[in-house]
Amino acid sequence: MAWLLAESFAELMFLPSRYVSVLGYLVKQYLFEKMELLPNTATLIAFYKRRKEEGKEEEEEGLEEVEEEDEVELLAGTVEVCFNKKGVVASPPTPTSPKNSPYISNIVVKKLIRRFRGIGWHLLKAREELISQMSSSRKGYLHCRMIDTTPFNMYTKSGYDIVKTDTILVLLLLQRRKHLICKKLPVLTNFSESDMFC
Known about the structure:
The structure is a single chain. The chain is an alpha+beta fold. It is built from five helices and six strands. The protein has helices spanning 2-12, 20-35, 119-134, 149-157, 193-196, and strands at 41-51, 71-82, 103-109, 139-145, 161-165, 178-184. It has a six-stranded mixed β-sheet with strand order 1-2-3-4-6-5, with helices on both faces. β3, α3 (119-134) and β4 (139-145) form a beta-alpha-beta unit. α1 packs across α2. The longest helix has 16 residues, at 20-35.
């Protein structure tokens, strides 16, 4: 998981691939710090199944049985959820969300399978269900950079609305402008298996 986050951060910061190992180390430290904040935070991890490609199929005369191909589970993506202000490791980005409201961060999908299997959407839905189960707040917040149109479109299609946008002054701090977006979440009593295991 640390490697997936490190690759994503390197991509966002336009860093050469040789810096991924350094970022991987920093991400591991971050994840250790995050573990100390349980139960105020959670990390959801998505996997996908892929068939092993064996190459040759052996056929014997007189046998009509076809062996099933083995499947392997591979890491597809991850998302972090903070249920309240006690679950935040560092200072949140601007514009800031309400202190005791659930906040989503670091939603990452492996680059090779983005927009392929709907993994980001399923992570988002699983996160919403988790918040509805674990938090008394009925609103969930997240940040999306203004230049990231694909994830922003996914969020708006899922019912998120812009609450605030950074001022142009954040460019002086060498940061990208971001939207703070919010969604009113439904009250759930049970996890739906369809969203949890898609």
